[in-house]
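Here is one such protein, fold included:

. . .
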Amino acid sequence: MITIKFYRFFSALILIFCAINLNAQETEVMIRAKAKDAKFIGSSIGGAKIIIREALTGEILAQGLTTGSTGNTDKIMKQDWKRGEDLAEESTAGYKATLNLKEPVFVTIEAIAPVNKKQARAISSTQLWLIPGKHITGDGIVLEVPGFVIDILSPQTHNSFKESEEITISANIVMMCGCPVEKDGLWGANQYEVKAVLKDARGEQTMLTLDQKNTASYFEGKTSLAKGLYELMVYAYDPVSGNTGVEKTNIIIN
């Protein structure tokens, strides 16, 4: 008797489960992260972390990394954009989520990028309704991520120098998609303001302009300092787009 009741109960659960699944519809959503004034964020710089959440509860519905190329440079950066035409191509970086939806759901979509560059990482997000069976493909949902990726190459963290010794301050600076910055390039170093700011323990600042040298994305300047502990900040600023980026470290002058 117990076995029969259990069998009937179990069968009923299966029928309910199947009915629920029959009502759910597969829904594809393409999400891309695009660097401000540059290209798509993809495999070459580690990608963007994409998270789709149910907006009200915060439940994660899907997550993953954008993978693929940064896209077609001419189409993205040089040609006029036309309404209805995709910027992305088949190989262009993106993350495609496949959701099983039973009813429309209001979601928050976040792009955290570049995911492997903690000092430059930024979050871009949007909210929208997803409707069962209504795919969002092509360019999909494009989230713009502002910033520059700045890596201070020298001095290294906690390096010490003698008072009045010449110090070389250098940094590697690229767009958030990893695209290079160089003189007379598509992302022109001569357009950007790149400076090092050295702040001592009293809060007094010394500023130094860093110039792009022979290697793409490499910026350098030289200075000397009085004895003390210093915070070193390197920033990049584009007065045309308003794009900014910062990296910090600390050094010692004996």
